[in-house]
Structures are given as structure tokens and as C-alpha cells.
Amino acid sequence: MRIPEGVRKGVNVLLCLVAVVGAGWSGHEIWQVVDARRQIDEACAGLVPAGRVLALSPAGGTITHRSAEEGMTDLGDGLPQDCELFSTEAGEKTGTKTGARLFFTGTVGVLPADRPQVADGPLEDLVDPFGNPTHPPQPLGGGIAGLVTDSGVVVELPCAEGEVNGRPVKALRARAELMTGPPFTVNGQVGAHDRDVLAETAVITANNLADRLGCADRLPDPPQDIPALPEGPVPASRAEGTCSWYREAGFARDSRYPDQVLESRTDDRLWDERCGLVLGDGRAADLYLAEADEHRSLTEPQLPGQWFVSLHTYSGEDAKNVLLTSTGSDEAPEPAEPGGAGRSSEDPIWWASSVCAGRPQIHTMTLALGYATVMASETEKVFRAYVTDVTERRHCTDLVFPKHSDFRAA
User: Are the CB atoms for 87 and 59 separated by under 8 Å?
Assistant: First the structure.
């Protein structure tokens, strides 16, 4: 028998009180837990599991939320929405003068989304420009469409039968994110305990939202002991996930092409699967010196990963609303539409399209400014190899690829 939501919450609170009394907690500590749960439920409209949030490392002391509408979830105002939570422990351990610090954000949204998916631009930072660790997101696994990032977890749940404010939806997403740095992170990412708790929080939040919207499906429990994100970039010779095709094709043997990769494990469930190709500092410097005389306007790369090739595949509802970024302030971003292919009229960004299991796919390639000046015409075969790998792996059809003449620097 399914226990009603209100009853279940009451039972959970009662069990919590019994547990803390049994542990010898003081009246002040009991009140602090009860008030913390109230703050979380109030801020997040009862969607985010308070018990899981309180299990996060920075969730000690007094928990509060914003008093303004921003940072408070109200489904009546439409989606997406988020809620923001503060704790005095996070404030104390990070030296915040006000005594409390933002430590958690929970976000919920639906598809189709009003906000477009924007392709990487030619000035993107694929690698941390200050030399801090870079951790490419990884699939959550466990039969769930989800991504693990260095700060949180986002999951997607099909919802063909649901609606929000009278508008039908096809899927929903929930994100749970830790908003603090050291001492609550390890080498630039959340620790093992918090990573598991954030995954549980995202899944429960998605299932709670599914209850509210009338969705038929629910997500299973997430996997336990989610591994830490590997640091990148790594040498192209070690590519074995979303960039394995690059290693197999041997592009990196040519000194004009990237010698490092930023990749994840492959997972066809993902709405955004990516492969980043980066020229290491030495290779970028050598290529610049070799080309500077011929290309007088070429600027020497100064930062790690400044010359790159960024490749993405957007799937399903996300593929129906992809925009190509524009570095020109007066130019509106251009759409990359399913069934089409081409190049941005402003920037070195190309797109192809296909259909996989009845779902549209948009494949994009972005070249860094400067690198595009030198290599735009030589990256057609890179883009074709990438798209071929994805479409063969996903058994896609109806592939449309840009014309040869589209692969130009400007």
C-alpha cells in the first residue's frame, strides 16, 4: 500500500525525533533539526528530500533559505525553478563574515524547455585557464539518464503523461548541487560521501516532481559508491570513451591536430554527450610559430587549452532547440535545426543532424578562435569521424552533413 506523502513526511519527522532523543541530543539540537527540515521543505516546495540534504557535509549548524522569491521554488510560477539553502557550518569553515554561506542548490525543470541549448563558442574554456583541476562530467549509470559533475548530479525522467500549468511535458530534470569549495571538496570536486548523497537527492527530487506533474514513470535508486571524476585532459593515446574514435583514427600523430582529450564514458541515454580535443601547450606553441608568418593576424595562445576542438551531440528535446553562439554582439545566435547541417555565418561552429531511435540528434563542432584560422579546412575529416562514431554506435539514420565548402575559417 502506498503511504500518502503527508503521512510519510510526518512519520519521517517522528522517526527522526525518536532517533535524536535516543542518541541523547539536547532540546536545542532537536529543535535545530526540525527547523532545518522546515526550512528545506519551505524553500524547495517539499520536492527536495530534507533528510538527504541534511546528510551533506556542509549541512551542520543552522539551516536557512532566502526570504526573497528568487531562490525559492514555486511550481505555480512555472519551470525551471531552484531553491537555495545556507548553513552556518559552511560559513564558519569557509570564513564567511556573515556567519552563513550558500551550500546547496536544488533545481527542477521540464522538457520541452523555454531556454535553448547553446553550443560551445570559440572562446570557451574547456580546460581551467588558471591551472586548477578539470573534471569532465561522467554518466551517472545505473539505468538512469544522468550526469555527475564536479559539484553535483543532474538526472532526467521521461514524463509523457504529465503537465505543468496546463502545458504537456515530455520529460523532467532535477539537479542537486553542492555550492561550496574547500574544505568540503577534494581536489576540486565533491567527496565520495557527498557525491552519493547528491545522486540520491537528485533522483528523489525527480520522482517527487513526477508525483506532482502526473508522470507515470519513476527513476530507480542511483548506484552506490559513484566513482570520482577522472582529471583531464589526458593524452589522446589513452582515449577510451567518447573520444576513442580520435585515438583509433590516429589524428594526433599529425602535429597540427590536438594531442590531448577531455572525455567521458559513453552513454546513449545522455541528452548531451561530448568530446573535447585540446592542443597541449607545447603543440599549440609550435603550431603558432609555424603559421604566424603566413597568418599575420594570428594571436599566440597564452592559456592552457586555448586552442581546441569541442564536439557535442544533443539528443531528443534538447536537439530541437540548439543555438549556435555568436561572438558578435550585434548578431543573434543562429538555430541548428534537425534535418539540416551547415556552418555558423559568424563563428567557426559547424553542425550535422541525424535521427536515432526516432529521436532527433544535433552534432556540433566548435573550433577555438586562432586555431580555426589555421585548421578549419583540415577539420572536416575530424568532424566526419566523430559524427560517424556517434551515429554508428547509436544506430542512427537520416544523417545530414555540412558541405565541403562549409569548412572555412570565416
Answer: yes
Q: Per the omega criterion (within 30 degrees of 0), is the bond before 80 cis?
A: yes
Q: Is the pLDDT of residue 379 over 50?
A: yes
Cβ 226 vs Cβ 196: under 8 Å: yes
- Burial classification of residue 28, based on how many CB atoms lie within 10 Å of its CB (0-12 exposed, 13-18 middle, 19 or more buried): exposed
Note the pLDDT tens digit of each residue in 251-263. 999 999 999 999 9
Please, are residues 122 and 369 in contact by the beta-carbon 8 Å criterion? yes
Question: Alpha carbon of 386 to those of 52, 106, 209, 251, 269: distances in Å?
Answer: 40, 34, 36, 12, 18
Identify which of 316, 139, 140 has the alpha carbon closest to the alpha carbon of residue 220: 140
pLDDT band at 339 (very low <50, low <70, confident <90, very high): very high
Which sign does the torsion angle of CA 136, 137, 141, 143 carry?
A: negative
Among 38-42, 114-118, 348-352, 356-360, the range scoring the smallest mean pLDDT is 114-118
Side-chain half-sphere of 269: how many Cα atoms within 13 Å? 17
Nearest residue to 78 (alpha-carbon basis) of 54, 102, 114: 114
Residue whose cell numbers read 546513449: 268
pTM of the model: 0.90
User: What gap in Å lies between CA 159 and CA 209, rounded to an integer?
Assistant: 10
State pLDDT tens for residues 193-236: 999 999 999 999 999 999 999 999 999 999 999 999 999 999 99
Identity of the amino acid at 96: T
- Element spanning 235, H or E: strand 234-235
Contact 344, 331 (CB under 8 A): no
The span from the CA of 79 to the CA of 399, in Å, is 33
CB 43 within 8 A of CB 84: yes
Q: For cell 559524427, what's the residue? A: 387
Q: What are phi and psi of 119, to 5 degrees?
A: -65, 155
What confidence score (pLDDT) does residue 114 get? 85
